[in-house]
What does this fold into?
Amino acid sequence: MAAARELVRGALASDSCTVKLENPNRLTAKRGSQAKMRTLGGAFVNLKVLPVRLEIDFVETGNHGTVGIFAASNLGVGVMLGMEEKYRDAVADLADLVVGALAPVTGE
It folds into this structure.
């Protein structure tokens, strides 16, 4: 699982995420900027600017491992009206990044 964790950490860091190792089994990451999104307006920003946070858990069971991904907006106080689909796309983009980073470990 250490190899998987490092692959994911590297992929997130190269995608301009702030990554923190919470413990050997959990990474947290943040991407985007609340200030920039609010200044420019959510309708006008790139997906990578939308503030999103991730929690990634690495669970090892015998010879197998599982990676759990929890992603959510990191908007803080505010209304996301009209931006739901854009946030779904931003979260899916990060989830795809994590899955892609794991390809050398999973063989997929």
Observations:
- The helical segments are 2-14, 34-40, 84-101, 103-106.
- The longest strand covers residues 52-61.
